[in-house]
Amino acid sequence: MALKFCANLNFMFLEASSFLGRYRAAKAAGFQGVEGPYPPADISPESLKTVLDEAGLKQILMNIALGDAQGGQFGCAALPGWEPQFLANLERTVEYAKAVGCGKIHIMAGKLDGTATDAHDRTYLANLRLAAPILERNNIIGVIEPINKYAVPGYYLSCYDKAIQTITSVGSPNLKLMFDIFHAQHIRGNITNSIRELAAHIGHVQLAQVPGRNEPDSDGELNFRHVLQVLGTEGQYADGWVGCEYRPVGDTVEGLRWLRDFGYWQ
Q1: What is the pLDDT of residue 238?
Q2: Quick check: 164 and 176 in contact, CB under 8 A?
Q3: What is the dihedral of CA 144, 149, 152, 155, to 10 degrees?
Q4: Are the C-beta atoms of residues 144 and 169 closer than 8 Å to each other?
Q5: Burial classification of residue 2, based on how many CB atoms lie within 10 Å of its CB (0-12 exposed, 13-18 middle, 19 or more buried)
Q6: Residue 156 near residue 109 (C-beta atoms within 8 A)
Q7: How many independent structural domains does the chain possess?
Q8: Residue of 136, 215, 234, 245 marked catalytic
């Protein structure tokens, strides 16, 4: 499978003077696709669609709208009492995604004040079961992502076994796993076998070096030449897009040399 790389605009091209400027900068740097946060309130679907069309870019993935979720970030899918907000955020994101031609939504679970309880588990499963037919009707893939405790302490979903159990319980072809290599290394390691074991459930992949969350060729724990080779040959998932969700060490464009050194770009 040929891997394709999309720029994560929550982390990359922050040198641009505006949110939409990040899109233009990503295209100028050579990207064909982008992913990132739900756009700010002052960015209409029409204005984003115009920039995407002008640049010839595809919006591959979008985080769910966060609305008034706890702490203003990280979603609310697992938070009891926030079910109306979850549904409103999902429906809002689906409509925006359809308007700009985005086929994947990252459904975020939320941060907890303490340990997860049965109530959190029931809420999460019920919300995802509610989301599944909405995603299916609109031909959108929802992805759920285990996030490591060092990056986001208290995030509800921090276990791959729990993620797969949830996906299996929902039983929808439109609910998949976000396999973020950065988080996977922190949570379970053994990346080669993790790709092989989880491939059937993966709907999207993201990457960053560990532990610094920088470019794949920066110093760290992982040999990304090998990891990406395994992903390309054995991680037969979805559409082959890989999100570059890393913090550039310096200038974003200068840091893209790894794509050429690894043989993915000319």
Answers
A1: 65
A2: no
A3: 50
A4: no
A5: exposed
A6: yes
A7: 1
A8: 245
Report the interhelical angle of 45-55 vs 83-100 (nearest 10°): 40
Question: What span, in angstroms and rounded, lies between the C-alpha atoms of 75 and 175?
Answer: 17
Rounded Cα distance between 132 and 113, Å, is: 27
Q: Of 252, 253, 242, 264, nearest to 35 (Cα)?
A: 242
Question: For residue 70, what pLDDT is reported?
Answer: 54
Determine which helix (DSSP H) or strand (DSSP E) holds 243, and give its type and residue range.
Answer: strand 241-244
Residue-wise pLDDT tens digits, 86-131: 999 999 999 999 999 999 999 999 999 899 999 999 999 999 999 9
| CB neighbour list of residue 192: distance below 8 Å, 6 or more residues apart | 226, 227, 230
Q: In angstroms, rounded to a whole number, what is the distance separating the alpha carbons of residues 180 and 184?
A: 6
Residue 20 DSSP class: H
Q: CA torsion sign, 18 to 22 to 27 to 28?
A: positive
136 is catalytic: no
Domain that holds residue 102: 4-262
Contact in structure between 127 and 171 (CB atoms under 8 Å): no
pLDDT computed for residue 111 by the predictor: 94
Structure tokens at 54: 């002008």
Tell me, yes or no, if 215 is annotated catalytic.
no
CATH of the domain at 213: 3.20.20.150
The rounded average pLDDT for each run of 10 residues, N- to C-terminus, in the chain (266 residues) is 94 97 98 97 96 97 82 85 96 98 98 95 98 98 98 97 98 98 98 96 97 98 97 82 98 98 94
How would you label 147-167 residue by residue, b for 16+ Cβ within 10 Å and e otherwise?
bbeeebebbbbbebebbbebb
**In the numeric block, which tokens belong to residue 263?**
């043989």
pLDDT computed for residue 1 by the predictor: 77
Please give the structure tokens belonging to residue 18.
């505006």
Q: 46, 136, 145, 234: which one is catalytic?
A: 145
